[in-house]
Specification:
260 residues; mainly alpha; MetI-like fold; 12 helices; 0% strand
Length: 260
């Protein structure tokens, strides 16, 4: 715990100083509220608009969470298929890479035109943004597996699914969770982008409405909630990773005792 605090405290101090500086500059009139609202105004908006913010937060959370889970499943399935069938890898891997070069803001309106308004286009946007790092990292994990272990199991008569279950997948967990962590940082913003183009509710819609009405304190309140939601996804993944791979996060002293 002490080591964790040692890493967290400096960042918290810098954040507190930055908030205090913005509050001071706003109070003396150097920074105008239409440029950057005072932190006290943003806090007041979070309190007074909590019911409406909570309603939009739930909408964004549901889309981001469902899209995130589906993107993990899709990413794993694609990686498994490409690993099992090299022809699929050679045919579709370049297309996957090209698909990620298209800016999300450009493709989102096209998806809305294809699927209409509602939940489906927003889920599709989250899927397209989040599945790629999961697939790519898991594929890298498969290629990094010790080939001597695979050859040994094959000489012992192990089938492909046995090799995948006992060697490839366990050895690739580190790579898989690296991809999931990246996807966790993308899913909320992908949901917000989808709401900008085709959503009736959500923090993205709330942000646009408050911007158009020049309620910048409420707009920044929604931005803060988006940041908190993104961090929540990230740290939930870290928690699951620690539960799935406790040996990776063990302290050096514990690792040394285990080796002895």
């Amino acid at each position: 715990m002490g080591t964790r605090l040692k890493h967290i405290v400096p960042a918290l101090v810098v954040l507190a100083l930055l908030i205090g500086l913005i509050q001071l500059l706003s109070a003396v009139g150097i920074v105008r509220s239409f440029v950057l609202p005072a932190p006290s105004d943003v806090l007041r908006a979070l309190i007074t608009q909590r019911d409406l913010l909570w309603f939009h937060l739930r909408e964004t959370l549901s889309v981001a969470a469902l899209g995130f889970v589906l993107s993990i499943i899709l990413g794993i399935v694609i990686a498994l298929l490409m690993d099992a069938f090299p022809l699929l890898y050679r045919a579709f891997y370049p297309l996957l890479v090209v698909s990620q070069t298209i800016p999300t803001m450009i493709i989102t309106p096209v998806i809305v035109l294809m699927f209409g308004y509602g939940l489906v286009p927003r889920l599709v946007v989250v899927l397209l943004v989040c599945f790629f790092p999961v697939s790519i990292n898991l594929l890298q994990g498969f290629t990094a597996v010790d080939q001597d272990q695979i050859r040994l199991l094959r000489t012992l008569g192990a089938k492909r699914r046995d090799i995948l279950r006992h060697v490839k997948f366990p050895s690739s967990l580190v790579h898989l969770f690296s991809g999931i962590r990246i996807a966790a940082t993308y899913c909320v913003m992908a949901a917000v982008l989808a709401e900008w183009s085709g959503g009736g509710t959500g923090l993205g819609i709330y942000m646009l409405r408050t911007k158009r009405s020049y309620s910048f304190d409420r707009m920044f309140a929604s931005i803060i909630l988006i940041i908190i939601l993104s961090l929540a996804f990230y740290y939930v993944v870290i928690l699951v990773e620690k539960l799935a791979m406790p040996w990776k996060h063990a302290r050096p002293a514990e690792n040394k005792r285990r080796q002895e």
